[in-house]
Design brief:
This is Nucleoside-diphosphate-sugar epimerase. The chain is α/β, with parallel strands linked by helices and 293 residues long. It has helices at 13-22, 50-56, 90-110, 152-171, 188-198, 213-225, 247-254, 274-280, 289-292, and strands at 2-6, 26-31, 41-44, 75-78, 115-121, 138-139, 174-180, 183-184, 211-212, 231-236, 259-260. It has a single domain (2-290), classed as NAD(P)-binding Rossmann-like Domain (Rossmann fold, 3-Layer(aba) Sandwich), CATH 3.40.50. Strand 1 (2-6), helix 1 and strand 2 (26-31) form a beta-alpha-beta unit.
Amino acid sequence: MRVFFTGGAGKAGRHVVPYLVEQGHRVLNADLVKLNHPDVHDLRVDLTDAGQVYSALTSRAGYDELDGDKPGFDAVVHFAAIPAILHTPDAECFRVNTLSTYNVMEAALALGIRKVIFASSETTYGVCFAQGEVRPEYVPVDEEHPTVPHDSYAMSKVCNEATGRSFQARTGADIYGLRINNVIEPHEYAENFPAFMEDPSLRRRNIFAYIDARDLGHMVDRCLRTDGLGYEVFNVSNDDMSVGIGSSEVIERFYPGVEVRREMGETETFYANDKAKRMLGYQPKHSWREVLG
């Protein structure tokens, strides 16, 4: 497919874009920062400017397309965003993330692109960036869990989900939101996970979960290859927890009084990914245990 990818130079994008290229997709990176991948053209775009977004979505994917007809894009993958709170003032985080998402969706659908995949977040469940400790209403956390966040970043993601749902209702296109858990790059296992083994409480705000950046690429590819779902949101995580203790100890130490909705395996993630497996054929392959044993 021909994919217009926003934010390809970000922490997630710099792994997802090369994965998509390896799967045979043609990708244009629309970003304020260059990815510098040999097979991906970088187009500098301010996504908060609606005119720039419309123009970019009619662009070629590279200089090689100057000969012959100018093809359009088959799909948009929108990952660009202020990546968390405390990178900008809260109001700016909310403005950039919501306005850019509206502009991307409006332009893509107006230009006849029938698939939009956008990055939502684990933060929508209100745990990650809450002031003080907030526990899930139940575990494992699935897509039916309430999304009532306290912070500007997560608020922007909940608004973006409403924007996606509204555009899908208006157009009938496929719009899939990915509630991505904490993205982990391969080198971070050796660097960061020993501390998580020593102190599991460091992973409380991430619901003790994670998503390997390579498996996130697989998830995006499965979304590109799965048509006809309309509007859907999916949790994105790996199959196991990001701590060395078992699920029974996590429940006892961190989730006393929290409803446990089903029996859980001792290393099973508390951030349920069953829906993505069932509807998309998602099958994550990686684990920190391959590195640390």
